[in-house]
Specification:
155 residues; mainly beta; four-stranded antiparallel β-sheet; 1 helix; globular
Amino acid sequence: FPVLKSYFVSADEQILLCCASADPQQPADIYYFLKQADGTWAAPIRIPLSLDSKGDEITAFLTADKRNLIFASNAPSNGQHYDLLLCKRLDDSWQKWSMVQALNSTINTSANEYGLALSPSGEQLAYISDVRAGQAKIIYARTPASITDQLQHNQ
């Protein structure tokens, strides 16, 4: 990938996600690599088009159970700023995912939000918010019940 925007390695080091594009003028998409039995990484596979937000996709994160994918996108539907989005892996194929939904307004604002990470228990979260243009702030807090509900009930 000529343009690598961000990457994530699962806690068990079996899955690598990267947000990348082949052309610097094109938005990044999310790719996954699965670790093979010999310890090498399989070829990258693009997350299916149904997840394509039509924007630049960055800071992909998998929850500890490897079922929920959270990432930031500046899709036109977000008003061209980055919002945090969520979708759920529906089976073990890595090809079937739920519809993408935005995290609620407790997290997403009119600023850029990206880089979300959850504690292994899911009780704490951290993410970055550009509270003012050019002034990013790390937000660390207890995971709001509304987000916990989204993670548990995302279909």
